[in-house]
């Protein structure tokens, strides 16, 4: 199969509490956020590992929360590559990210990274992600991000951890716009 014919998509992952114990080491929860700080829009992407109980984050300026969600996936893939993971189970609260990984990427690649004749949004990021998906097994699960505590599962608790890691801290509010 040529690289043009390779399937660029992720499989659907089981819920975290249904994931086999030997695969939980490959589970990463991702989140992104955006906030106006002073006159600047700041974004933050975060990844949480439930087994290692550690978060990793990246930050920048000038982009949206959707951009941060995509950067979080890219960060998770970078971590998996650094750790030489044979597979990866991603848990995201973003339907846009989940749908892109489940199939939109394949359609975009076949359409030369265009949709309706126009370049796709954040095309370079998506191309980087698509190239990574051709390597090991990647599974994705959408997590309902905000549920009442009485309904929260271990999956939701882990999602809450990555949500906290993705929050943009504001040390000082600039009221002189």
Automatic annotation (TrEMBL):
Cross-referenced Pfam families: RNase_H
Residue ranges occupied by any RNase H type-1 domain in the UniProt entry: 22-171
Entry's transmembrane regions: none
Protein origin, superkingdom: Eukaryota
UniProt xrefs under InterPro entries: RNaseH-like_sf, RNaseH_domain, RNaseH_sf
Gene3D superfamilies: Ribonuclease H-like superfamily/Ribonuclease H
Protein's name in the database: RNase H type-1 domain-containing protein
Classification lineage: Eukaryota, Metazoa, Chordata, Craniata, Vertebrata
């Amino acid at each position: 199969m040529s690289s043009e014919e390779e399937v660029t998509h992720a499989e659907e992952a089981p819920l975290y509490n249904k994931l086999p114990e030997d695969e939980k080491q490959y589970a990463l929860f991702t989140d992104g956020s955006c906030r106006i700080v002073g006159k600047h829009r700041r974004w933050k992407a975060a990844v949480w590992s439930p087994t290692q109980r550690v978060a990793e984050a990246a930050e920048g300026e000038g982009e949206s929360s959707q951009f941060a969600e995509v950067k979080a996936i890219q960060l998770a893939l970078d971590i998996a590559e650094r750790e030489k993971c044979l597979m990866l189970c991603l848990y995201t609260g973003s339907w846009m990210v989940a749908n892109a990984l489940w199939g939109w990427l394949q359609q975009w690649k076949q359409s030369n990274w265009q949709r309706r004749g126009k370049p796709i949004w954040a095309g370079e990021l998506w191309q980087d992600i698509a190239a990574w998906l051709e390597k090991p097994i990647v599974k994705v699960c959408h997590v309902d991000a905000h549920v009442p505590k009485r309904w929260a599962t271990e999956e939701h608790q882990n999602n809450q951890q990555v949500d906290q890691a993705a929050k943009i801290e504001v040390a000082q509010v600039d009221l002189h716009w």
